[in-house]
Amino acid sequence: MQPENLFGPITQIGYLTDDIETTAAFWTQTSGIGPWTLMSGVSMATTMDGEPSTINIDVAISYKDDVQIELINPLCDSPSPYLANKRAGLWGLHHMQFTTKDMNASVELAKSAGLELACTINQGGGVYSYLRGHGVWFEMIQASEELEMFFGMIKSACDNWDGKELIRDIAL
């Protein structure tokens, strides 16, 4: 019997790095992924393990088919889903993301499967929940229509990429 797919398709692969430009170039050279949309100095108010925190990151987004690839450079030592990896110098694959229309129901389903809600973020038109279990991070996103449109513009740029501009910087 095949296990049940609780959350649907993976919509994002999150990757931690301490050098977004070098990592983006590597992903492009090895996988043909690009261009990358870079957002520098993103600050997010969050709740991590029940305590308020502020996370500061640089983030770059691209797509491979329908899967979003997210490069994250944690810029702070605030409590976050990224902190332990950063302190240990563990760069690379960090999390898988799933998109939901009902965050509360998805979080409850994840908890019933043995995952622990660790972090919640409500920012930029999205509600994000990070869940952990068995050494794996899962991220759930419930995106507004505006955020979905923003992601759609990034995906369109990737679908029509001519291979010239590797990184597009967006001021927030």
Automatic annotation (TrEMBL):
Question: Highest taxon of the source?
Answer: Bacteria
Leader sequence residues: none
Q: Ranges for the VOC domain?
A: 9-143
Q: What Pfam families does the database record attribute to this sequence?
A: Glyoxalase_4
Query: What InterPro entries does the record point to?
Result: Glyas_Bleomycin-R_OHBP_Dase (IPR029068), VOC_core (IPR037523)
**Naturally occurring in which organism (per UniProt):** alpha proteobacterium IMCC14465
Q: What's the name of the protein?
A: VOC domain-containing protein
